[in-house]
Design goal:
binds S-adenosylmethionine; alpha/beta; binds magnesium ion; binds iron/sulfur cluster; 9 strands; binds the ligand Nc1nc2[nH]cc(C(=O)O)c2c(=O)[nH]1; TIM Barrel
Length: 215
């Protein structure tokens, strides 16, 4: 039996988030997630999908001839074979990022991968799942993200930023408004008023393609 993963979709688009926003990127979206964030824009990846071999996935990715590959979900680290997938993508020479909820251990991820670790805010309703041991593992090649639903979430995120010195540990600290919950302009004004060492990120793909799956 070959190594397999359950996959919702593989597509080529522009990266909508993080430090590579705007760059052409192949997305590999793994099926299944043990969390249920109230704002989740990818709930269609909770179930279904297709079981595929790593060889098959690598072959499809190679067909796009990308420079950047983003492994997302669902929650990629909920499937053990996400770890060899990430390693093989790095071996193939791509610049690889991993979007992960922050609820699962990120220690086994290949160090060439930029781990984009979400710290779930109270407004997500999944903040009790945060695994703070992950914060100690972050390096300059990693990114930490807060998806912010309200002023209360913003104040909470600022307190974690200070408590863990996140801007000193990770290469990027990203503050993203939860689409439909918080106006981007409000969050932008708060970040400027407080002179924070963070990057406001908007989800470019939602402006371009209005949240269609596969974009
Ligand atoms: C769909 S998740 C998949 C990866 C992983 N499960 C996670 O939560 O990081 C990818 C990213 O989209 C963010 N996201 C999901 N729904 C969102 C929304 N409505 N507005 C802004 N960001 C959202 C998540 O917080 C996460 O950072
Ligand atoms: N274009 C585009 N960029 C993205 N960056 C992160 C995504 C995700 O769903 O994790 C995503 C996505 O779904 N589409
Ligand atoms: S952890 Fe990620 S995929 Fe899972 S519900 Fe939350 S945002 Fe959606
Ligand atoms: Mg998405």
């Amino acid at each position: 039996m070959q190594d397999t993963l359950r996959i919702t979709e593989v597509f080529y688009s522009l990266q909508g988030e993080t430090r590579t926003a705007g760059l052409p990127t192949v997305f590999v979206r793994l099926t299944g997630c043990p969390l249920r964030c109230q704002y989740c824009d990818s709930a269609y990846a909770f179930s279904g999908g297709t079981v595929r071999t790593l060889d098959d996935i690598l072959e499809q990715v190679a067909g796009y001839r990308p420079r950047y590959v983003c492994v997302t979900g669902g929650e990629p680290l909920a499937q053990p074979n996400a770890i060899p997938l990430l390693e093989r993508l790095c071996d193939a020479g791509y610049e690889v990022s991993l979007e992960t909820s922050g609820a699962l251990d990120v220690s086994a991820v290949d160090p060439r991968v930029s781990r984009v670790v979400d710290l779930k805010t109270p407004g997500s309703k999944e903040a009790h799942r945060n695994r703070y041991e992950n914060v100690e593992l972050l390096t300059r090649n990693d990114q930490v993200k807060f998806v912010i639903c309200s002023r209360e979430d913003y104040d909470w995120a600022v307190s974690k930023l200070i408590q863990y010195g996140l801007d000193q540990r990770a290469g990027e600290v990203l503050f993203s408004p939860s689409h439909h919950d918080l106006n981007a302009r409000e969050l932008a004004d708060w970040v400027v008023a407080d002179n924070l060492p963070v990057r406001l990120q908007l989800q470019l793909h939602k402006y371009l393609w209005n949240d269609e799956p596969g974009r």
